[in-house]
Write a structure and sequence with these properties.
By secondary structure, the protein is of the alpha+beta class. It folds into two domains: 1-35; 36-514, Cytochrome P450 (Cytochrome p450), CATH 1.10.630. Helices cover 57% and strands 9% of the residues. It has helices at residues 2-34, 50-71, 94-98, 107-114, 117-120, 124-138, 142-161, 172-188, 197-218, 225-228, 233-262, 270-281, 285-314, 318-334, 341-346, 348-360, 395-398, 414-419, 457-474, 510-514, and strands at residues 77-81, 84-88, 105-106, 168-170, 366-372, 376-377, 383-384, 389-393, 475-478, 489-492, 495-498, 504-508. Strands 1-2-8-5-3 form a five-stranded mixed β-sheet. It has a three-stranded antiparallel β-sheet with strand order 4-12-9. It comes from Apiospora aurea.
């Protein structure tokens, strides 16, 4: 039966597949004749052809970037990645490259290649509207919305992690994912919609399905992708997510439009801020709904991974837990128990631990993906042909002893001491405040670099701090079976993530139980 169904599918799609195949062959032939290739040195040539180099990258990307950093520290080189050939540029080139206009060094095309927008239909152009909204409305509203955010975090952490009257083993990634989805949704959609299970499911699973689809499409050669796309069910799942998002939010948007016409009080959330500007930016109601999924993809899983990594880092360091609690309690005392934005800023040890965890646990070994739209010649004479993609290695930078003394030591106080000037500054920043968690520099690209750095990092930092504060004040934690080693992370190519299946034991502290 399955073979018969497959034959029907193939016969139905055969004309289209033949057309795509012929077009692919023509594109390949033309690109082979006309594409200008870089003559920069190729890392890993000894592994064999492009397919063999790609296989090596899949399993040993971190080692390859480290080798490239050691051999070509101050010069550009080529590397075969899961996205094809890339030019890896040195740190000193970033200042020059970031100042170039988008019609020369393009961020959207570079990102589109990373997330395969041609097949996933993720819209980089319209997502620019969401990025504008984050910068212009969300970040500027943090002081105002922070008390509501803090209350939502306290409630949701308590509900999702539970009472834990005795030591309770949990897979915290799952609970934290729901906490982040609900708390982020409180800002994105308001207090009622953020707790609807259909929203929570969509906001958490959309990202999972995006990266499942991306992973499957990247498994194929670029010239076969136009054909293979028809046989990847996850791509259809993404379309279904978008359809459901439009159906879920359509009545909400219409109700709010009616309130806008009537001059009624309006909600104070991201959806409403977007609606206020949608017409002037040419954004349709359907796209407004889909942008909520894009916001979820940008915010929820990355924040969840940051919190999960933090928990894995501090659960094996009880002294750090004690120090963090002491700082939190003192700052709360100084601010009459209110978690204002200023109070969060004053928690400098917590900020330091967050940045040290980010240094140790990058989500990718490379950053700054860009497409070279026009030929570029750098000041040192390096020539980058048009049509090439570039990136820079960040994993080796995070462990460079010239930038971070004793890089193999997880030092909770590293950035706290640097900000307080109790340790010499190895990088010689203009101000010690550049060692904050949210600050982007070429030596700290956890949130990207340049004008296209993550606009939501200030919101993310506040959210991470609030979640960590309420976990630390409410729960003791320990590793199961007395383990003392940190859990390993999951690695695929250049990408890394905390293992969502690991377990940590929680027990409610006595003072929290009495509150």
């Amino acid at each position: 039966m399955e073979i018969e169904q497959l034959s029907h599918v193939l016969s139905d799609r055969l004309p289209a597949l033949v057309s795509v195949a012929l077009f692919t062959i023509v594109v390949y032939a033309v690109s082979s004749l006309w594409n200008e290739k870089s003559t920069l040195p190729l890392l890993g040539a000894g592994y064999g052809n492009a397919a063999q180099r790609r296989k090596e990258y899949m399993t040993n990307a971190a080692k390859l970037y480290q080798k490239g950093y050691e051999i070509f520290r101050h010069q550009a080189y080529r590397m075969t990645t899961l996205n094809g050939e890339r030019i890896v540029v040195p740190l000193e080139a970033l200042e020059e490259l970031r100042g170039m206009p988008d019609n020369v060094v393009n961020n959207i095309i570079g990102l589109s290649k990373e997330i395969e927008t041609k097949y996933t239909s993720l819209d980089g152009e319209n997502s620019a509207f969401a990025a504008h909204m984050v910068r212009s409305d969300l970040t500027r509203s943090l002081n105002r919305i922070n008390p509501e955010l803090a209350a939502e975090v306290e409630r949701t952490v308590r509900e999702e992690l539970g009472p834990c009257d005795d030591w309770t083993s949990q897979m915290p990634f799952n609970q934290i994912l729901r906490v982040v989805a609900i708390v982020s949704g409180r800002v994105f959609l308001g207090p009622d919609l953020c707790r609807r299970e259909e929203y929570i499911y969509a906001s958490t699973m959309y990202t999972v399905d995006v990266f499942r689809a991306v992973s499957k499409i990247k498994a194929w050669n670029q010239y076969l992708k136009p054909i293979v796309q028809f046989f990847i069910p996850e791509l259809k799942t993404l379309s279904e997510h978008r359809r459901k998002a439009r159906a879920f939010l359509a009545p909400v948007i219409q109700e709010r439009k009616e309130a806008m016409r009537n001059g009624s009080d309006l909600p104070d959330d991201m959806l409403q801020w977007m609606m206020n500007k949608a017409e002037s930016y040419g954004v349709s109601d359907a796209r407004l709904a889909e942008l909520q999924l894009d916001l979820s993809m940008a915010a929820i899983h990355t924040t969840t991974m940051a919190v999960a990594d933090l928990l894995c880092d501090i659960v094996i360091r009880p002294d750090t837990v004690d120090e963090l609690r002491a700082e939190i309690k003192q700052v709360l005392k100084n601010h009459d128990g209110v978690l204002t934005t200023q109070a969060l800023y004053e928690m400098k040890l917590l900020d330091s631990v967050m940045r040290e965890s980010q240094r140790w646990n990058p989500i990718s070994q490379s950053r700054f993906p860009r497409y070279i739209a026009k030929p570029v010649t750098l000041k040192d004479g390096t020539q980058i042909p048009a049509g090439m993609f570039i990136e820079t290695a960040i994993g080796p930078v995070n462990h460079d002893p010239k930038l971070y003394p004793e890089p193999g030591v997880f030092d909770p106080h590293r950035f706290h001491d640097l900000r307080n000037a109790t340790k010499p500054d190895p990088i010689n920043y203009k101000t010690r405040e550049q060692y904050q968690y949210v600050t982007v520099t070429k030596e700290n690209m956890g949130f990207g670099y340049g004008k296209h750095a993550c606009p939501g990092r200030f919101f993310a930092a506040n959210e991470i701090k609030l979640i960590m504060i309420h976990i630390l004040l409410r729960y003791d934690m320990r590793m199961p079976n007395g383990a003392t080693e940190r859990y390993p992370r999951l690695i695929q190519g250049s990408h890394e993530a905390p293992d969502p299946t690991v377990q940590i034991e929680f027990k409610q502290v006595q003072s929290a139980a009495q509150a």
